[in-house]
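Hi everyone, sorry if this is the wrong subforum. Our group has a chain we'd like a structural model of before ordering constructs, and none of us has done structure prediction before. Sequence below.
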Amino acid sequence: MKNPTLRRVLVVTTVVGATLGGGIAVAAWTSSGSGAANAKAGTAAAPTTTALTAAAFTSNLLYPGGPAGEAKVLVNNPNPYPVKVNSIVANGTPTGSGGTGTCTATGVSWTAQTTLSLPVPANGNATLTLAGAVSMGPTSDDGCQGALFSIPVTVTVVSG
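Answer:
Right subforum, don't worry. Here is the predicted structure as tokens:
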């Protein structure tokens, strides 16, 4: 190069460029470390059930030896996430009340509902209609006519 000023500008530019490039390389260094992150899972609250009144039974009233009837159960989900009911099974002896007389031997039985997938919204409830879930055998007391039967059940849910 014959022009000394141009040569000086190129040298200064090269030196400045090299210095800045080195600074960028230093700024781009990385490192890492290890440790633990913490999270806490909530605790699932048990669903609750409520048997609905006699008006909720829409078909197949029970009678001794008759066909299985429809049951309706209100399931309440107190959890902040939706659940699915996957089974409802009996967990006690059915009782009858409000019949025409003494209803000690109800003859009522519950058919386990074990292949369900019925949704219940978060912090909500759902009325489940279960066709063929309840029946009355031939041993029912005569006083059970017109009675409303309470059948203790256990409801199992999964998050979903």
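For your construct planning: Residues 48-159 form a domain with the Immunoglobulin-like fold (CATH 2.60.40). The longest strand covers residues 124-136.
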